[in-house]
């Protein structure tokens, strides 16, 4: 069994493709079950954010697992597999471990160092746990990825600027509004995790007055109370749009919430000379594609953010995180090698027990005069001798297996003792695959 990571992000696909690939929270359990139903996939975790869709899987063959996952993503998105392949990156084995740790550390994010990915990974892992789609390998990978991400943020200055997708979007908004957002009126649509982050970031940036609208009024009320904002009923969205300068939209709607008609009406009712800047952080998009180009409207979506220039963390900070990732990858690979030898060690001990039992049966057949106490003494002695003989080599082989090239020791044990151990098939595997990332 080995790890395979397949996905698309802002680096490999535009927003239109990501939109089709996007997997809503409600769809995740179904996608996980479809992945588990594939012949080469035994474990799966799905991560879907505003700028990436990824599948982490435990597979028993590279090519088979790749085909299985691509087919599930193709059927879900409606994008033909041949077309989808041009937008995907693929990581296998060690490369998959490294990729997951770089993602959790914020190194692969559109805004390098952002910490929101940790929460998104945690949610994805929780969903997989709830759907019983994460086995031993992915449980360990996700737990370690979350730990590595926390360590990167705690031990380096990778996130000292507090950058996030929202702060990056506000930088773009500022460029359209004279460079200063202080005192600018804003509306946040959506009160989920991204909406809450938007409200907090806008408040820290001095934006205000601030309004919040959400499908669930109670959630909007709680968020508004926490930040001194005002709630607006969703039914009054058009009116609210006409009165603000900045809109941050981050809902979970599967259809565009801000239609061309709605935005046209809001723009017509505006008395301000500045453009209405809409930051669309939703996936799928909240702003209808045909609304782009309306006079007085500026729409910034994930494509726009990916193209915008932002200040990256210092090279020293990034290098420090890369060092953490490299060390943690080595540790995880050691754990994987140790885990792979466990079935072989167990099979060896089982074989030894079978030999002891067989020899005891022969002995007692020849010596029927033994009392029950004598039989028990002989049995205990034989088992104790075998366990003592096996103890040192089995401990040592576990240690050796954790080192690079350690898989040869498991193979050697199986050959020497003719052990029949069910193993994952890696005949079609490749040592390391790294696609566009």
Keywords for this structure?
3 domains; 10 strands; alpha/beta; six-stranded parallel β-sheet; Beta Polymerase, domain 2; Rossmann fold; four-stranded antiparallel β-sheet; 437 residues; 16 helices
Descriptive account of the structure:
There is one protein chain. Helix content is 53%, strand content 12%. It is of the alpha/beta class and 437 residues long. It folds into three domains: 2-155, Glutamyl-tRNA reductase, N-terminal domain (Beta Polymerase, domain 2, 2-Layer Sandwich); 165-307, 3-Layer(aba) Sandwich (Rossmann fold), CATH 3.40.50; 327-416, no CATH class. The strands form two sheets. It has a six-stranded parallel β-sheet with strand order 7-6-5-8-9-10, sandwiched between helices. Helix 14 packs antiparallel against helix 15 (372-401). The longest helix has 52 residues, at 315-366. It starts with a strand and ends in a 21-residue tail after the last helix. 42% of the residues are buried. Residues 424-437 have low confidence and may be disordered.
| Main sheet summary | 6 strands, parallel
β-sheet strand percentage = 5-15%
Average pLDDT, rounded to a whole number, is 89
Largest beta sheet: strand ordering? 7-6-5-8-9-10
Q: How many β-strands, per DSSP? A: 10
Find the structural class using helix and strand composition.
Answer: alpha/beta
Query: Roughly how many Å apart are the termini?
Result: 24 Å
* Model regions low in confidence, pLDDT < 50 over at least 5 residues: 424-437
SSE sequence, one letter per element: EHHEEHHEHHHHEHEHEHEHEEHHHH
Question: Helical residue percent?
Answer: 40-55%
